[in-house]
Amino acid sequence: MAVKGIVLYDFLLVRGGAERLTLDLVRGLPGVDLCVGYRDPQAFPAEEIADLHCHDLAAATALPGWRTLKVMRAFAGPATRFLADYDWALFSGSNAPLAVRHRLGGRNLYYCHTLPRFVYDLRDYYLKRFPLPLRPALLALMAYVKPRYEASMAAMDTLIANSENVRGRLRRYLGRDATVVNPPIDTERFRWRQQGDYFLSLARLEDFKRVDLIIEAFRRLPSQQLVVASGGSQAERLRRLADGLPNVRFTSWLNDQQLAELIGGARATIYIPRDEDFGMSPVESMAAGKPVIGVAEGGLLETVLDGETGLMLPADPTVEHLIEAVSALSADRALAMRHAAEARAQLFSRARFIERMRAVIEAAPAAVR
Question: I need a labelling partner for 138 at 20 to 30 A (CA). Which of 85, 166, 224, 248 fits?
Fold first, then answer.
């Protein structure tokens, strides 16, 4: 009898790194099925995943807080009882792992992009920025998520972390060790196209990604061009911040081809999030031969080589640090880093990821029937 496997992820909502990893993994392991809490048809049209056997739990909602609860309940509920029919299951995200309760026989794996950070290391950060009248609701959500997430982790036979940074968080908060398998980068799609003269920000538009610092830097660098190619909950605020700046342009989310072309034609990318889990965008940039202005903390310490494939700023960068780095990274200097950046990105190729994931899955404890 053929071994049957399935990969579960919270939802296909935006074209982010975790979503790309999920689809790469399912496609890289023939015969493996997919299960998601829901799929946004605009971000992921049906024809794009027509080659996959996908269980869609249809737990969609536009309300972020309710979304977490609704998707968690969908995975934990009877709609995922079919998981008992599989020989192994790999869970990812923060909501999908609740479905492990329907797979008590073993061979359950968890790929950790990050712990739910609003419950753990960024708990105080979120509470301070949440409107005071709504904080009781956020505290209630934290109290609901944390014990259920930890119970799901306790039921996993094998933990996989996307970086040493996330591996450290698993040890710190859950007392569990993990095997590190870095995310896959499509090094064939992201290629050098031309030596453009604009800088590129690819981070989601959220507070902890610190895109506001980048915009402020370019306010004081009117001769330099910035393209912000993403979306997020802070999109309107950041657009207002950049209002009147002719050298700052927003594109919103782009399709895969548009994104590859934009990266391939940039001078460099700027990526300075707070304690990033891993950070696929910097590696995609390097795959296209484009250096990265990054920050010396989190996952970027595992990918970007300061002075060779980019320039690293202090862990708590200021606008002045950014201005200095942008000014220092001339077109000639960026071009001189091209080959080192391309070589570095090959360490994170899709083929390498699939090979390592297959080995970890095959080594997972056998299911008990």
Answer: 166
